[in-house]
Design a protein that fits this description.
The complex is a heterodimer of chains A (about 300) and B (about 375). Chain A is built from 12 helices and 3 strands. A 3-stranded mixed beta sheet of chain A has the order 1-3-2. In chain A, helix 2 crosses helix 5. Helix content of chain B is about 30%, strand content about 25%. The longest helix of chain B is centred in the N-terminal third of the chain and has 25 residues. The chains are: A mainly alpha (about 300), B alpha+beta (about 375). Chains A and B meet through strand 2, helix 4, helix 5 and helix 10 of A and strand 1 and helix 11 of B.
Chain lengths: ~300, ~375
């Protein structure tokens, strides 16, 4: 079992959870931590979480997760948010079908662990790149999602090997859809997951294939937008006026919170921009992605059932 | 970030709002309604336009007195009433009208329209979804339901039928309570590209003829048209197990009063649907008044977005009923209006010929 100190580092103190999720919160997080700790494919993720004290929070705050996003990792704040609304709906479905609340919470931990691993992978990659680049490096690149999908798939294969019945047709939940798609893509062959990622993140650029100028322009735009947002917020316009394009889901924050977020985010993107101007540092980043992708692909291929 | 679905959101935003007197709405009572022949919907319409309670009362009195005088002043010329008496009695409200009716022998004329049988919203002829879907699939083979708008009212007005009858009988037409119901299904199609901006609407229900007197026509067949997407109806929701009647029952059990006019929407809304139009430059009326929205709990709104939901609106309150589970999720103050329906404007009163021009008071709901 997880030590109580470590568990408390992982569980974030949160305002009164919405009544419908409250009873599930602690058993859900405890089961998720337990799985992370013991599954073969997630030991590195567990080390990262416990060493870096990355908080995992189930939240209904639309500034953290909105619409149909089950999970999100904040590169700026280094924490993971899991959507309470989606979890609460799934818990309600399970209880309606006769599951005890404690069982429903544990089932949800199993079902959503690949997403937690997916988000933790973003965190691990970000930390590795920070060391290689000499500062924060935060770009939305295709390779980031490929790595996150690979790790999520590896975790799913571990979970599936232990309890395949949880993913039997009659036990599938709405939130299983992404994992079902990932598994199906993996079964199609080595390129299957890459094709899925390209489809889900249509238009996202590849750091390994695209020219660095594209990313310099993207980083410049982000910095410009953040500065505009900060200016509007300082003028007293509020997160509302800073708008959807400038702040994304952070527009749901209070003006004070939004400004603080923008002020934390700006140095991250300025550092990213600096790395893009440094050919040696950029090459180290690219080499990292090449190596990490090759390593994960080899792991995934090793899990493929042998023919005959 | 792991996105399961990418949802597009149309930024909307509002025109300049009218300063409303919050006391205006509450000043209406059935007694005032009877005294000055004003329906709650008409009173609320004045409040919506920024009338104070006393202005709304004065306007109701003026309108009632005008109708009353138009009805009884002809009897002054026929010797049944002394000159000027009709105006004097009309100013006394219902007791004055009763006295005048007695004096002129026109008392107890029955309303032309029989009182409507009470209907629960949605009971009447809801449900031809399959027929609407057939129509939509003739438009696009992969059409899918993306929303439903429903409206129910039982407002009081003079129908053209009653006007004709009254004219033939040489009497003053009576106002009657007439139920009115309309519903529109909205369709999207998954093969739509970003360049294609039109959805499809199939409408059923009643139509108010606005040419002269009010005339509710019971629509026989659907009225279908290709039209730009309505905000909020841009995401396929497929079929839902909870119909409007069940949603109404769930809301009523939770204490939500089903008063008329009553509106309902079925939609799967994105998170920022209600708040985004109140952020930044506003180009379109928001679905909820921004001042009301301040009282809405953002965390509760997260619970009613992202899945098919019945959104019921009546008496300045809104209820959200889960269309998959049939459970009441959230009730809050403030009405909802997606702006989906053409505003129905009709002429009142129909005591004069259309040539009378400005004697026709425009009412809009």
């Amino acid at each position: 079992m997880l030590g109580s100190a470590a568990l408390m580092a992982f569980l974030v103190l949160r305002p009164a959870a919405a009544q419908e999720w409250g009873p599930y919160d602690r058993p859900y997080l405890a089961e998720a931590v337990s799985l992370l700790k013991r599954l073969p494919s997630t030991s590195e993720h567990w080390r990262f979480v416990s060493a870096q004290r990355i908080p995992l929070q189930v939240t209904d705050n639309p500034a953290e997760v909105d619409d149909s996003i089950l999970g999100a990792y904040s590169l700026v704040d280094r924490r993971i948010a899991i959507d309470e609304v989606i979890l609460a709906r799934a818990a309600e479905d399970l209880v309606d079908d006769g599951a005890a609340p404690a069982v429903a919470a544990r089932v949800l931990a199993w079902k959503t662990l690949p997403t937690i691993v997916h988000e933790l992978t973003h965190g691990r990659v970000h930390d590795d790149l920070r060391r290689l680049a000499g500062g924060p490096f935060a770009l939305a690149v295709l390779e980031d999602e490929q790595l996150a999908f690979y790790d999520g798939c590896l975790a799913l294969l571990d979970l599936f090997a232990e309890k395949p019945a949880l993913w039997s047709k009659e036990r599938l939940l709405e939130l299983d859809e992404p994992e079902a798609a990932t598994l199906e893509a993996w079964f199609r062959g080595p390129e299957g997951i890459d094709a899925l990622v390209a489809q889900v993140y249509d238009g996202r650029r590849s750091l390994l294939k695209d020219d660095a100028a594209v990313f310099r322009a993207a980083a410049d735009n982000t910095i410009f937008d953040l500065r505009r947002a900060a200016a509007k917020l300082r003028e007293g316009g509020g997160a509302a006026e800073a708008g959807r394009r400038l702040l994304g889901r952070r527009r749901h924050m209070s003006p004070k919170e939004a400004l603080a977020y923008v002020e934390r985010a700006l140095p991250v993107f300025i550092s990213t921009r600096r790395t893009l101007d440094d050919p040696a540092a950029l090459e180290r980043v690219r080499a990292y992605y090449r190596g990490a992708l090759a390593e994960r692909r080899a792991k995934l291929e090793a899990r493929r059932p042998r023919k005959g | 970030m792991r996105a399961v679905l990418a949802l597009a959101l149309l930024a909307a935003p509002p025109a300049g709002a009218v300063d409303k007197d919050p006391n205006c709405y509450g000043a209406y009572s059935p007694e005032v309604g009877r005294e000055w022949e004003v329906a709650q919907a008409d009173w609320n319409a004045m409040c919506d336009k920024g009338y104070s309670a006393s202005d709304a009362l004065r306007q109701s009195q003026r309108s009632s007195m005008a109708r009353c005088t138009a009805r009884f002043s002809p009897y002054e010329g026929k010797g049944k009433l002394p000159s000027g008496e009709s105006a004097a009695y009309c100013a006394r409200g219902s007791s004055g009208r009763a006295r005048l009716a007695e004096r002129t022998g026109t008392a107890a004329s029955k309303p032309a329209a029989a009182p409507p049988k009470p209907r629960k919203p949605g009971d009447a002829r809801m449900g031809p979804l399959a027929r609407a879907l057939d129509q939509a699939r003739a438009w696009k083979p992969d059409a899918c339901l993306s929303g439903l708008y429903y409206f129910y009212d039982d407002t009081t007005f003079i129908t053209s039928e009653e006007w004709s009858r009254a004219r033939a009988a040489g009497r003053i037409p009576e106002r009657g309570q007439v139920p009115f119901e309309e519903y529109s299904y909205y369709f999207d199609y998954p093969s739509r590209t970003d360049r294609e901006v039109n959805g499809y609407r199939v409408s059923y229900g009643d139509v108010i003829d606005v040419n002269f007197c009010n005339d509710v026509k019971r629509m026989e067949g659907p009225d279908q048209t290709e039209s730009p997407f309505e905000t909020g109806f841009t995401d396929c929701i497929g079929s839902v197990p909870v119909d409007l009647g069940a949603a109404v029952d769930a809301a009523a059990k939770g204490g939500f009063a089903l008063e008329t006019p009553f509106k309902a929407y079925l939609a799967r809304l994105p998170t920022g649907f209600f708040h985004d139009p109140c952020r930044g430059g506003l180009a379109k009326k928001p679905p909820v008044e921004c001042s009301d929205l301040r009282n809405w709990d953002p965390a509760q709104l997260r619970r009613v977005t992202g899945r098919p939901m019945w959104i019921l609106s009546a008496s300045g309150r809104t209820a959200f009923v889960d269309a998959l589970k049939g459970r009441l999720r959230y009730v809050t103050s403030g009405g909802v209006d997606f702006g989906t329906s053409d505003s129905t404007t009709y002429a009142e009163p129909c005591l004069e010929d259309p040539k009378a021009g400005d004697k026709f008071r425009k009412l809009s709901k």
